[in-house]
Amino acid sequence: MKKLLFTVAILWSCVLCAQDFIHTTYLVGNSLKNAEQIRQIDYQKFQYIYLMAAPKWAHEDFTQPQKDIIQKLVTNHQYLKDKDIEVIPLLIEEAHKNGTKVLLSFPGKEEFTQRVSSIEQQHKLIDMMIRFIDKYDYDGIEIDWEGDLPLSLHTNFLSNIRFKLDSLGKTNNKHLYLTTALHSWQIYNKNLADKLSSSVDWINIMTYDMGGGIWGNVPKHNTPLDQIEKVLKFWKFFDHDKLCIGLANYGFIYKGLAPGTKIEGKLKEYGKYFSYNDMLPLLKEGWTEEYDSKAKVSYYFSPDKSDFITMENPKTILTKIQWITKEKYKGVFWWEFSYDAIYPTSKTDKVKHHLIDVVSQYLNETVYK
């Protein structure tokens, strides 16, 4: 009997571990225009959505009294309507029907550091955030801080948000989530790592934009697995179950350059962001794939080899998710929902994805089964 109970406990533990792995995505709110589009999302693919639909504020807003800030950014705020239906609240409602939670993502632009460095303005900002998510029934907050990032300031800011979220959660009798997205090359000491870990539910590590993008001067792979493995060693003070790994369904296209060519100036003069959907028509025009066995991702070259694209494909994304689950990370997230979307022609069908569905299928067949 004891042996049977032990076996059952082990099996149940494995089930819980499998269920703990999360598949999530960012979704840009202003790309959502109508109710039909909202209802066509297959929410069951994702346990969480980071919705980039925060209220837009001006620099001077947070110099005003708190009641005026709340009046303008919360009380008077309305999302885009489609036939008298606010689109974003409909998304939250539809997500909840399917068991998917929606976190409001606040993008950290250059002025974010200034906004948070002042304790008075930080408290005003956090109060506005809390009131806003409460108004719309969001399940938490995601801080996507990509500008100048003083690590101690960011950590203290997240700690202060956590305190306010917990207070609201007690009132509403539910757990409210707090996550943050950070560049992969950040380096934490143990004290800062422990403090941040105690505040957030998990961290989204942006393991993309690793090859020069449009801001560097050497065009390379956007998501090389060998480099991802290398930079993740910087995160040694965090438990793997606190870290989600970023997946990209976009890349970059470069004109008149070969991979690894160093240029004067910035790559924006030669290249641009490119979605997976943007690339598909080029494959019918003679562009060819060259797989890099070291980086475990591919380049795509124009017929005359003068231009190239760095991009994932179904084979390389499968390699990544297999590695991530093997390493027992918390989960994965996508930037961004729309870049590989296949929109249905029928109102009753759901949005499918070229790459996202590869990961969904793999998880359903091996992790969640």
Keywords:
single chain, 369 residues, alpha/beta, TIM Barrel, eight-stranded parallel β-barrel, 17 strands, disordered N terminus
> How much β-strand is present in the residues?
15-25%
End-to-end Cα distance: 26 Å
CATH topology: TIM Barrel
Q: Which radius of gyration do the C-alpha atoms yield?
A: 22 Å
- The total count of helices amounts to 12
> Considering the protein shown, what is the CATH homologous superfamily?
Glycosidases
CATH architecture: Alpha-Beta Barrel
| Average pLDDT number | 93
* Overall tally of domains: 1
Describe what this molecule looks like in 3D.
With 369 residues, the protein is α/β, with parallel strands linked by helices. The chain has a single domain (21-249, 315-367), classed as Glycosidases (TIM Barrel), CATH 3.20.20.80. 38% of the residues lie in helices and 22% in strands. The chain contains twelve helices and 17 strands. The chain has helices spanning 2-20, 35-39, 66-75, 87-97, 111-117, 119-136, 151-172, 190-199, 225-231, 276-283, 314-326, 356-367, and strands at 22-28, 48-52, 81-82, 85-86, 101-108, 140-145, 177-183, 202-206, 243-248, 250-255, 271-275, 288-292, 297-301, 307-311, 331-335, 341-342, 352-353. The strands form four sheets. It has an eight-stranded parallel β-barrel with strand order 1-2-5-6-7-8-9-15, surrounded by five helices. Helix 7 links the parallel strand 6 (140-145) and strand 7 (177-183). The radius of gyration is 22 Å and the shape is globular. The two termini are 26 Å apart.
